[in-house]
Amino acid sequence: MSHLATARPSTGYRHALAALLAFALSSACGAGTSEFPAFPPNFSVGDIDTADVSLHVRIGGQGDAVVLLHGFGETGDMWAPLAAELARDHRVIVPDLRGMGLSSRPAGGYDKKTQAQDIARLLDALGVHSAALVTHDIGNMVGYAFAARYPGRVSRFVIIDAPLPGLGPWDDIARRHAVWHWSFWGADAERLVAGRERIYLDRFWNEFAAPGNHYPDTAREHYAALYAQPGAMHAAFEQFKAFDQDALDNRGFAAQGRLPMPVLAVGGARSYGATMAVIMRGVADDVTEQLIPGAGHWVLEERPAELIGAVRDFLAKPASR
To answer: Which of 33, 135, 165, 189 sits at 20 to 30 Å (Cα–Cα) from 153?
Structure first.
């Protein structure tokens, strides 16, 4: 892996150069599996400090910036196939969210409004003023908070298969038995899962894939090792614990104004499907609906070619006037 030597600090961020110089080359440090699909070898991999958190980041390619945000049960590693495609004509920036993967695990700040600020500070450190967003699962929630707080910094927004707290049919979705895990957190929950991370995570990979689809075994092994790291499940549970605050924040964002950037609302046809477009039309003016046939929640793993094609086509569309 190469050092992030090509990043240029913005004039408005005094600590950018120091952040870039501190960008430490790293591997998985024993966590995860070497067999798991890797990012292209010309991607830089390391850590950038942004106030109270150190974000583990992969960066590669040249061109307009695009930020890829992962969700629960995975890390930024999930984006490797899409990142390889987008890096042909984009500068691709892939962090692990606060507390997840190889990013640091602060005591707090797991509300998505704070994590949106993490992304803003990361982009500042890299000298990136604006970027397209591609997000999945909890990454959707961070992405919406970022787009709502900093609309001038988001050129396009691809949001994939997960609802937004407090918006659209959130209350109806929250009553479904399938999302009992949104209320599963706390010290005793952590004790129950400790040493059984793979069993707990298998539940999501098994139940949220479409019938007949199988979440890859190499990915399961890789992520189970990462989520078994000290403090990793606590930080993951804190993401869910923050949903009540996220709902309040999102309703506040929606009351302040609608998203102005083009949005691609992607749903797995066997998961949230057209509901994604319903949610986003409630908060954005320019929404394109995209269903991925045969896909459940794990859209990139279940139907990679279809999702990658949809994202590439959307990012390449000329801006409307």
So the answer is: 165
Q: At what angle do helices 243-256 and 112-125 cross, to 10 degrees?
A: 70
97 vs 71, 193, 293, CA distance in Å? 8, 21, 29
Whole-number Cα distances in Å, 163 to 40, 104, 272: 31, 26, 8
**DSSP state, residue 37:** P
Displacement of CA 70 from its chain's centroid (Å): 3
Q: What domains, with CATH codes, occur in the chain?
A: 16-316 (3.40.50.1820)
- Segment 130-159 mean pLDDT: 98
Q: At what angle do helices 217-227 and 232-241 cross, to 10 degrees?
A: 90
287-292 vs 263-268, strand pairing mode: parallel
pLDDT at 294: 98
Residue with tokens 């003023």: 129
Of 76, 63, 200, the C-alpha closest to 132 is 63
Confirm if 124 and 150 have CB atoms less than 8 A apart: no
Q: What letter represents residue 14's amino acid?
A: R
Mean pLDDT, the chain, rounded, equals 91
144 by DSSP, 3-state: which?
helix
Are the beta carbons of 292 and 269 closer than 8 angstroms?
Answer: yes
Integer Cα distance of 300 and 297 in angstroms: 9
Q: What is the pLDDT of residues 75-97, one digit of tens each?
A: 999 999 999 999 999 999 999 99
Contact 148, 256 (CB under 8 A): yes
